[in-house]
């Protein structure tokens, strides 16, 4: 039976914890990583009712988008709903796991799912992150270059957008003098040596540098492996906030809002006036007012998000249509991402169910 640690590994390969925002608390909220998974219930939020549903359906893991523990807990007495949920989960040995802004910030995460529901094409990250990439440089005998590169690829290096196994290599000459305490791959202790080597370079996400360096040392034939790890300021085109894409055909603003309501099943869209046809659409699931300027700079005619405050609507400045569809509504399809990841990785090993409990606290009165 797969363990909770196995499940976490799958989720964190898709949405690395290193990509969560500094204020976030994604990851395991409670539970033993060695717990055998009997069933998984997926929800946007974890509430007492969600834990009750998990119990009723024989699920001992709840995977949610929003972390239950977001602010530090000073006591655990059941004084509020967060503490009540946590106590109930612990009492019944139900593990709680959350993938939040780390799932927002990956290319195939929350915003991609929303973009797909709206039928957008030619997708790209709206606000790519800086400082998440590094370049690993090493020097390898030509006879071992392919093996070393394959080990680095297997460790997650060499991915550039939709291209995998990307590298650069250049022939050169290395020099060294082995000491008397060495067992060199080539050469004699105490004698200067000249060796033909290849300089090999690969990109890698910085959070994978430990795994990449272990793979390098295991695959490299030298006792002492020379390498350079350089942090880059390049943007990571697959990691960042929001998304922008294009509709197949331009739509008048009113028709675009009708498309929003139909695609998301929402009764209300709050919006700013805009007269031009909508072709380029930016979006951000959840609370996305911080990206309005980025949406304008990307040339979007519409920006779809949630939780906009009154004064934040003025940021449109007549240059695009701001559309507030609601926080829950913009993230409601996140459960499908979790379901697809887990059912693909653990075929027929345990039940993976989307919660029927409605956790959205907002209601509309017409």
Task: Characterise this structure.
With 366 residues, the chain is an alpha/beta fold. It has helices at 4-14, 48-56, 81-91, 101-104, 110-117, 145-154, 209-219, 253-264, 292-297, 327-331, 334-345; strands at residues 27-30, 39-43, 61-64, 95-98, 121-130, 133-140, 168-176, 193-205, 227-231, 235-251, 270-271, 278-287, 302-306, 321-324, 351-354. The radius of gyration is 25 Å and the shape is globular.
Short description:
By secondary structure, the protein is an alpha/beta fold. The chain is built from 11 helices and 15 strands.
Beta strand count = 15
The stretches of 5 or more residues where confidence is low (pLDDT under 50) are none
Derived from helix and strand composition plus strand pairing, the structural class reads alpha/beta
- Give the mean pLDDT: 97
Helix content: 25-40%
> β content, as a range?
25-35%
Query: Using only CA atoms, what is the Rg?
Result: 25 Å
Shape: globular
Give the N-to-C terminal Cα separation: 49 Å
The biggest beta sheet is recorded as:
6 strands, mixed
SSE ordering: HEEHEHEHHEEHEEHEEHEEHEEHHE
Give the strand line-up of the largest sheet. Answer: 5-10-12-13-14-11
Number of helices: 11
């Amino acid at each position: 039976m797969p363990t909770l640690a196995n499940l976490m590994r799958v989720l964190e390969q898709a949405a690395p914890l290193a990509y969560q925002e500094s204020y976030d608390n994604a990851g395991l909220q409670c539970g033993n990583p060695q717990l055998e998974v009997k069933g998984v219930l997926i929800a946007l939020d974890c509430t007492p009712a969600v834990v009750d549903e998990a119990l009723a359906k024989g699920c001992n893991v709840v995977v949610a988008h929003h972390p239950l523990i977001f602010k530090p807990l000073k006591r655990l007495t059941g004084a509020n709903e967060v503490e009540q949920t946590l106590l109930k989960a612990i009492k019944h040995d139900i593990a709680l796991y959350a993938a939040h802004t780390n799932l927002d910030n990956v290319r195939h995460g929350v915003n991609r799912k929303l973009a797909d529901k709206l039928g957008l094409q030619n997708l790209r990250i709206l606000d790519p992150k800086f400082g998440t990439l590094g370049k690993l440089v090493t020097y390898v005998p030509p006879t071992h270059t392919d093996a070393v590169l394959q080990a680095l690829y297997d460790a997650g290096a060499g991915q550039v957008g939709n291209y995998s196994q990307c590298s650069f290599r250049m022939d050169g000459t290395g020099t060294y003098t082995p000491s008397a305490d060495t067992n060199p791959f080539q050469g004699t202790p105490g004698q200067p040596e000249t060796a033909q080597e290849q300089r090999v370079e690969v990109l890698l996400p910085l959070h994978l540098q430990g795994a990449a360096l272990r793979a390098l040392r295991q695959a490299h034939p030298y006792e002492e492996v020379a390498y350079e790890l350089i942090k880059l300021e390049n943007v990571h085109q697959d990691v960042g906030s929001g998304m922008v894409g294009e509709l197949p055909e331009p739509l008048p603003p009113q028709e675009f809002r009708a498309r929003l309501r139909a695609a998301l099943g929402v009764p209300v869209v709050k919006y700013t006036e805009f007269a031009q046809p909508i072709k380029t659409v930016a979006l951000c699931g959840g609370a996305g007012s911080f990206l309005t300027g980025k949406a304008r700079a990307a040339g979007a005619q519409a920006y779809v998000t949630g939780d906009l405050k009154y004064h934040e609507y003025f940021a449109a400045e007549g240059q695009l249509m701001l559309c507030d569809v609601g926080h829950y509504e913009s993230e409601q399809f996140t459960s499908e991402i979790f379901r697809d990841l887990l059912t693909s990785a653990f075929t027929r090993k345990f039940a993976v169910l989307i919660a029927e409990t409605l956790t959205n606290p907002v209601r509309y009165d017409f």
